[in-house]
Amino acid sequence: MSSIESWNAQKILEQYHQGDRNFIKIELNQADFQKSNLNGINLNQAQLIEVNLQQAQLINANFTKANLYQGKIDQAKLVLANFAQSNLSQTSWVEADLTGANFSGAMMNRANLAEAVMIQCNLVHAQLQYSNCLKTNFTGASLTGADLTNANCQSAILTKTILTNANLTKINLKKASLIQAYLHSSNLQQANLEGADLRFADVRNADFSGANLSYANLENANLTGANLTGANLSYGNLTEANLTGANLQQVILHETNLTATNLLNANLGQADLSQAILTQAGLLFTNLTDANLTGADLSQANLIGADLSGTNLGQVSWSKTIMPNGKTRK
Amino acid sequence: MEKMGTHLVVDAWQAPAELLNDPEQIRAAMIEAIAAGEATLIDLCVHQFSPHGVTATATLAESHIAIHTWPEYGYFAADLFFCGKGKPKVAMKVLQTALQAKEVKMHEMDRGFPTASMKQRLEASMYK
Questions:
Q1: Most buried of A68, A314, A330, B110, CB within 10 angstroms?
Q2: Does B41 touch chain A (CB under 8 A)?
Q3: What is the model's pTM?
Q4: Which helix (H) or strand (E) is A12 found in, with range?
Q5: What is the pLDDT of residues A26-65, one digit of tens each?
Q6: In terms of CA atoms, which chain B residue is nearest residue A180?
Q7: What residues in B contact A165, CB-CB < 8 Å?
Q8: What number does CATH give the domain A1-166?
Q9: ipTM of the prediction greater than 0.95, yes or no
């Protein structure tokens, strides 16, 4: 390859069509590759600030450690491309196909990934603070250790997505689909999960303190050891969820469906359970001190060993409820 | 030996065929094993073979867990490699329980360099 100063987009395309694929460390800021076909190109460590790759085809391209700051990559096809450790801050990827691409360790702060396809992507330790992931499809992707603080992931698809130890503080996941997602030990403090679908999700030891989970569906989710202090789960569905040992202090569970939910050893001190459905719920050794259970349905619930000191039990429905002393209340 | 990690190589028999041929059950068993082994999950791939058999691989921050099942023989082979922290034996016990194997044979191997001096020599040669 000749000296990097003489390169421009047209020359790259000519060289590419002659079979050249290696353009390592090339400097092509503001280059225009719109609608170009550059499958398999190697742009390792390239300087591509404000590059235009809209509607381009770059299947299996290599952008490792490249700088694409403020690049426009909307509607591009980048299946299996490699962006490991690259600078992708403030880039735009609207409706891009990024299936199987590698973004491990990439800087993607304030990137616009709205409606992008990121199925099976590797986003381990990627930085996505303030990114726009509206309706982005992350199915099967790995975001272990990623930082999505303040990201907008409204209506995003995160089915079977792995988010171990991810920082999701203040993320917007309103109406997002997180079915069977793995959120073990992730940080979701003050996150907005209103109406989100977390059925069968694994959120053990996750921190949901101050989060909004109203109208969320957590049916069969595993919340063992999770911290939900001060979270709002009103009108949600926790049917058959596992909340063993969870911290639910001051949580709002107004009109929440907790049918057959396992709350063994959970801390529900000062929680608002007014009009909650606790039919067949397992409340063994649960701390319900100063909780509000006004109008709650405790039919067939098991309260053996539960602490009900200071609990408001006005208008509670009792039917075959096993009380803390082991006696059944009819 | 300059130990880099612990490798458990496991053969397990007399497990129910329907469990060993169910990718969702295998996935759930792997997730339980990872949690019990105090490992950090990075990626999980579960593949169903035709007509039967499942292979699942979990990439962990601590290394990996892999399992291959032969439902027709009620047999599965697993290997668990953990470097640094984590509890591979606890993870294996959970796998055995979840997949209901009645008989298990486990080999434990230390992985790494035969001697500390060999590691140092090889490290030095890498930077020449």
A1: A68
A2: yes
A3: 0.92
A4: helix A9-17
A5: 999 999 999 999 999 999 999 999 999 999 999 999 999 9
A6: B28
A7: 40
A8: 2.160.20
A9: no
